[in-house]
Amino acid sequence: MNFKDGNIRKMEVENNEIVNYFLPIANDKILLNDLIGKEIEIKFEGRINCIKCNQQIKKTFAQGYCYKCFVSSPETEACSISPERCQAHNGIARDLEWANEYCVQDHFVYLSLTSHVKVGVTRQTNIPSRWIDQGAVKAIKLAKPPYRELAGQIEVDLKKYFSDKTSWQKMLKCEITPANLLAEKQKAAGLLRNDLKKYLSPDNTIYEINYPLATPPVSVKSINLDKTPEIKATLIGIKGQYLIFDDNRVLNIRKHNGYFINITTR
Question: Where are the domains of the chain?
């Protein structure tokens, strides 16, 4: 029996033939792939700490922040959700030094296959972890603009034709609408405004991602630790940021950034 306790963060990933998942807990990391097929017990101790300032809080904002950090931190600025609203390239940001490092750099607009084809934006340094966090099984780079706001403009244009959302239930059940991503990229390229076409990426590599989930669940029920502070079940797989249990319950780890838990394995 192994036991760990501490505040958790979203799972870190390593893309190999099958994605490796690591759960940061306190100052340690657990390789969760090793726990698949084993009974695990998770207990939430009722304590949450802000992932930015470590203050103890009753609820989180933007997946792990206290309210003060939510309204003041560069990580939670509006462009984190809406890239087209970024003004860092114009010298406007909550923290310009941070924004120059994370926003005024190459970004990719991509098409990924999660439950269906979706369009998204990510920094170059977040490939392929961004796709893995979304549960994508395939992805292709579409455009490479030099800063975040431009990437957001491209995404906004393409959202008229492609979804920017994932059906998490279908993603976890591996109910995926087949698609040829290269053909979808060619379609998207033809839909772009002429002034944005110069950012199209010549890289037509189709990235494939395999998850540690041998048998997808036939149904899924999302649970959260606030309402279900104790979970005891066998871990059957991991996909996106979800732990998937043998009773069809799933736990979104990213949603619980900063939660203090005990985890026991048998």
Answer: 2-60+213-265, 77-208
